[in-house]
Model the fold of this input.
Amino acid sequence: MEPNDTRTRILDAAIEAYLEKGVNATTVRDICARAKANVAAVNYHFGSKEALHAAVLEHSMDLCHRRYPVEEGMEACATAQERLCLLIRNMLRLSFPDDPYLERLSQLFWLEVGNPSPEFVPVNERFTRPLVQVLEAIVAEIIGPRADTDTLRLSIAAVVGQCMFHSQNRRFIHMIYPDKTYAPRDVRDLADHACRFALAGLAAVRASLEATP
Done:
C-alpha cells in the first residue's frame, strides 16, 4: 500500500496510540486525529473499533513472525536438544527484535499477554498455538515417555518462562539491574544460558522419572 493510504495510516496511528495510552483508553477519535482521517473511516475500513484492534494485532504479529520465524532452521537439527536450543534462540530473537519498528510492534503482544483481550484470542491461536505444539513434541521427546501431562506442561513452562521473564519484565529488571541491556549480543548470551539451564533441568526431570519405580 502507499504510505498515505487511509487504512495504513489508521493502522499505524492505532499502534502508536495503543502503546502510548493502552487499548481501553484509546478512542476512535484519538486514532483518527493521529491518522488525519475522518472518524467514520474506522468503520468504513475495519467495521468497528474492536475489529481495528484485531487488525492491529494480526498485522503486528504477522510482520514480526515473517521477519523472525520461530521454526527457522529446525530441519537442520539432528536431535530434540538441538531443536529446543534453536527454538529458544528464535523465540528470544522474536521477543527482542533488532529492528526498532518491530521492537515496538512486539510490545503489543506483551501488553496482551498481561491482559488478554477478546481480539487477541484468534491471533494467539494462529501464532502461539503452533509453537506450543512444537514445544510439546520436543520436550516430550527429551523427558521421555514416563512423563504425564502435568509434568510435560510444567517442563514447558519452565523452559518458556526463562524467555518470557526477560521479555515481559524489562522495566522491572532495569530497576534491579540498571546496567542490564538487551543488545543483540546480550540476547545471544541469554539464549545460551537459557539453553544450558533448560537442557540440564529436563535431563534431571527424565532421570527422576526413570528412577521412580
